[in-house]
Specification:
The complex is a heterodimer of chains A (362) and B (265). Chain A is of the alpha+beta class and 362 residues long. Helix content of chain A is 25%, strand content 35%. The longest helix of chain A has 18 residues. Chain B folds into 2 domains: 45 residues, no CATH class; 202 residues, MetI-like fold, CATH 1.10.3720. Chain B is built from 14 helices and 2 strands; from the N terminus they run ααααααααααααββαα. In chain B, strands 1-2 form a two-stranded antiparallel sheet. In chain B, β1 and β2 form a beta hairpin. Chain B starts with 5 loop residues before the first helix and ends in a 5-residue tail after the last helix.
């Protein structure tokens, strides 16, 4: 049992919502579609569910071409960002409805609903109507309905996005355990890189309707093949610096010199983009190879345990993530330090050419 | 601001005066109506109502009206449901123009259609039948029903439909089991509006009927006998004509504002 998309494209009018996507999903694993809004996550899910048909390419399930098969015959389940339940039915009937359609016996329905309800902590809500529940309980009901019929494919389209912070944390912790118990193919769409990393599993990064990389979430995070993937799976945003290497010197805007350390000397002369994560930008020198830069503070966001310091350095905006509380005035000039060992370097085609020592060693 | 209630009170009294006067007259004798000015019946009588409930030429009018209004409500709602669903869920070539064109039917005066309907129904033998009036009233009730229902349907997220299809519901089953219960109040309001417009419509109903399907409103306007107008009986008939509308309004009172906004609140 596996779900395969082969060169799938979806064109609406003249614009491609999905262009030439090939993906292979294995059962029992959590697959994450990560990308900003309008990157095509929902469209891709609708194609997998059979709610829409691709304009080109095919969808295969367990090796069988199911491209034109009606949604009712797909044995899929879907959970939306909005809490979608049948308002006219009780929570019990909501969860039971796919089983009633499948003409399953009364006692078995009761058994299966009770089981999935206890898994999602809805035992005491079964007699109520969905609009008498809190947002989190409504979404649990929707997830329960998706799980109860034992679908081969469960699609979750930003299921936690409309929940408040605490409920989101709570459900996010429970989801991997629930997924592990069912053994279906799970596809989970999210816009948040941190959510992808917290859930683990495998991640496909989407950008403007194209999959830029697909692999285990940690791999995609540590070894992004290209700049777009690195940007997509980075929160807070990735810091970048466009540079030119010429005659053994590496320059930004032809006057700021970057010392050639680590693998940088081996690169041929060309245009490059240096990228590094906010937690690899420091407020004090840690190694003697660190590069010191004068930066102007734009704004400081303090979360309590961490501070995000947004700085302007020679016309580029970098974010520095430091632990603890740091207070800087707006427009204050401070020294910040870069560690060349943490640099990702992308070539003029935005493909990865150098990755950090720490990652390469693993 | 001690007197702030006075203006609304005056307004309400102003509106209620004709209705009160109608009830007042219906409980008087013709002699009293024509001879003295009295604010309430001096000689209270229910004889006028008894005339209507016992004389077939009167009560058959109510029955006829009820029959064609009911047929019209059923036809309008049943045909408007799938049409409104299509307008609310699908995009097709010219959908917006077609939708607006529907409403323009509502704007045409019924008098325009009285002649073609009369000739058409006469030639195919539908003249003076209940179904004839019911079908004629669909001309303006069906577009209205589509508009109101479309508004209510668009308030139901499309994701509910899709979730149902993913869950395995076929379209007809989803429509009956999930969708219709969710827009039940909308259907109620639609039925009320169809009822109301069909109930008060006079011109088409009178043109398309002679004896067998003659509506109460037509009977009321023709009751001039040799002895002059029978004021008391006419007033009683008027009161009885208001009652069904008032009853139906009571049932949909909580949803009616949304209905007037064509479901778009």
């Amino acid at each position: 049992m596996q779900l395969e998309l082969r060169n799938v494209s979806k064109k609406v009018g003249k614009s491609f919502h999905i262009s030439n996507v090939s993906l292979l999903f294995e059962p029992g694993a959590l697959n994450i579609l990560l990308g900003p809004t309008l990157s095509g996550k929902t469209t891709l899910m609708r194609l997998m569910a059979g709610l829409d048909q691709p304009t080109a390419g095919t969808v295969h399930f367990s090796g069988k071409d199911v491209t034109g098969v009606k949604v009712q015959k797909r044995n899929a389940a879907m959970v939306y960002q909005q809490f979608i339940n049948y308002p006219n039915l009780t929570v019990f009937e909501n969860i039971a409805s796919p089983l009633r359609i499948a003409k399953i016996g009364k006692t078995e329905i009761k058994e299966r609903v009770d089981k999935v309800a206890s898994l999602l902590k809805l035992e005491n809500m079964l007699g109520r109507n969905p609009n008498e529940l809190s947002g989190g309980q409504q979404q649990r009901t929707a997830i329960a309905r998706a799980l109860v019929k034992g679908a081969d494919l469960v699609l979750l389209d930003e299921p936690l996005a409309n929940l408040d912070y605490k409920l989101r944390e709570e459900l996010r912790e429970e989801l991997p355990r629930i997924f592990a118990e069912t053994g279906a193919i799970f596809v989970y769409a999210t816009t948040e890189p941190s959510e992808a990393l917290l859930l683990g599993g495998r991640t496909a990064t989407l950008h403007e309707g194209q999959v830029t990389q697909f692999g285990s979430t940690i791999d995609v995070f540590t070894k992004p093949n290209n700049l777009i993937t690195a940007r997509t799976l980075s929160d807070p945003p990735l810091n970048t610096l466009p540079v030119v290497k010429l005659n053994g010197r590496m320059l930004y805007k032809s006057h700021v010199e970057i010392p050639l350390i680590g693998k940088l000397p081996q690169l041929p002369d060309d245009n490059y983009t240096i990228a590094f994560r906010p937690h690899n930008l420091y407020l004090n020198r840690r190694k003697n190879t660190d590069i010191r830069v004068k930066a102007k503070v734009a704004i400081t966001e303090i979360t309590g345990s961490e501070s995000y310091i947004h700085t302007d350095v020679a016309g580029v905006r970098w974010v520095l993530l430091a632990s603890g509380v740091h207070k800087f005035g707006i427009n204050e000039t401070i020294d910040i330090f870069l560690d060349p060992d943490t640099f990702y370097v992308f070539d003029r085609n935005e493909s990865l050419v150098v990755m950090p020592e720490t990652v390469a060693g693993v | 601001m001690r007197w702030k209630w006075t203006i609304p009170a005056i307004y309400i009294i102003f509106i209620l005066v004709p209705i009160y006067w109608l009830v007042n007259m219906s409980l008087k004798t013709n002699a009293e109506i024509l001879s003295v000015f009295s604010l309430w019946p001096q000689d209270l009588t229910f004889a006028n109502y008894m005339v209507i409930f016992t004389d077939p030429s009167w009560y058959s009018g109510y029955i006829n009206s009820m029959i064609y209004v009911s047929i019209n409500v059923v036809i309008s709602v049943c045909f408007a449901l799938p049409a409104a669903y299509a307008f609310s869920r699908y995009t097709f070539v010219g959908d917006k123009h077609l939708f607006f064109w529907l409403l323009t039917n509502r704007m045409a005066p019924p008098a325009v259609f009285a002649l073609p309907f009369f000739q058409l129904y006469s030639s195919i033998g539908l003249f003076d039948t209940h179904i004839a009036v019911a079908l004629a009233h669909c001309l303006f009730n069906l577009p209205l029903a589509v508009w109101i229902l479309e508004g209510f349907m668009s308030g139901i997220p499309k994701e509910i439909d899709e979730t149902a299809f993913v869950d395995g519901y076929s379209w007809p089953r989803f429509f009956v089991k999930i969708f219709i219960p969710n827009i039940a109040s909308g259907i109620g309001v639609t039925a009320f509006f169809c009822f109301m417009f069909s109930w008060v419509e006079l011109l088409l109903a009178r043109t398309l009927t002679a004896v067998n399907a003659k509506p109460i409103s037509a009977i009321m306007t023709r009751t001039v006998s040799a002895s002059g107008l029978d004021w008391g009986v006419l007033s009683a008939a008027g009161v009885l004509t208001i009652v069904p509308g008032a009853l139906v309004i009571w049932f949909v009172r909580n949803h009616i504002a949304k209905g007037f906004a064509l479901g778009r609140v």
